[in-house]
Design a protein that fits this description.
Length: 53
C-alpha cells in the first residue's frame, strides 16, 4: 500500500475531509473578495441568460 492510500483510510483522526489553510480561511471571510466573486458570478449568469434569449 502506498503512502497516499494510507492517508485516505478512514480512522478516528482522519475523516476524509480537507481542512482549509490560512489563506483559504482569509479569502472566505474577506468581505471585499466575496463581493468581487459575487459580481463575477452575476456577470457570468448575465452572459449565459443573454445567449439563450
Amino acid at each position: 500500500m502506498s503512502i497516499e492510500e494510507e492517508n485516505f483510510q478512514k480512522n478516528d483522526n482522519f475523516k476524509l475531509t480537507m481542512l482549509p489553510g490560512a489563506f483559504a480561511k482569509r479569502m472566505r471571510t474577506c468581505v471585499v473578495w466575496q463581493f468581487i466573486r459575487f459580481m463575477v458570478l452575476n456577470i457570468k449568469m448575465l452572459i449565459v441568460v443573454s445567449k439563450s434569449h
